[in-house]
Amino acid sequence: MNRHILKTDKDVFDLSWNEDKLYEIRFDDRNFQIGDELFFVETVYTGEEMKAGKPLEYTGRLICATVTHKLKGVYGLKDNWCILGCFPKYVDTAFDIEDSEK
């Protein structure tokens, strides 16, 4: 089992926070596996805003989920992209990623 910290834009994060979205579509550069733990950390700015120069900042909200299944090469997914089924384990509203990386 591996653990992955994944930056997540607010709009997508909110869907997962409310358990309206129990899957994730990601580039599979980490070789995600069933049983891996995913730590979704909400960012203040979107990926597009950060590409344009906004700083990487976190809101403090985090979702921890376990990968329950993985689909690749289906449903029109491009090479190296996957759909991950995610079962949420817990949420946190005061997570400090800087402290977790020490």
- Widest sheet: strand ordering: 1-3-4-5-2
Q: Approximately how much beta-strand content do the residues carry?
A: 35-45%
Number of strands: 5
How many separate helices?
3
Order of helices and strands: EHEEHEEH
- CATH architecture call: Roll
CATH level-4 homologous superfamily: Hypothetical protein
Main sheet? 5 strands, mixed
- Secondary structure: helix percent: 10-25%
Provide the CATH topology: Archaeosine Trna-guanine Transglycosylase, Chain: A, domain 4
Q: In CATH's first tier, which class applies?
A: Mainly Beta
Identify the notable features of this structure and list them briefly.
single chain, 102 residues, alpha+beta, Archaeosine Trna-guanine Transglycosylase, Chain: A, domain 4, 5-stranded mixed β-sheet, 17% helix
Describe this structure in words.
- The protein has helices at 10-17, 47-51, 97-100, and strands at 3-8, 23-27, 37-43, 58-72, 81-92.
- It has a single domain (3-100), classed as Roll (Archaeosine Trna-guanine Transglycosylase, Chain: A, domain 4), CATH 2.30.130.30.
- It contains three helices and five strands.
- The longest helix is centred in the first third of the chain and has 8 residues, at 10-17.
- It has a five-stranded mixed β-sheet.
- A hairpin with an 8-residue loop joins β4 (58-72) and β5 (81-92).
- The two termini are 21 Å apart.
- The protein is 17% helix and 44% strand.
- The chain has 102 residues and is of the alpha+beta class.
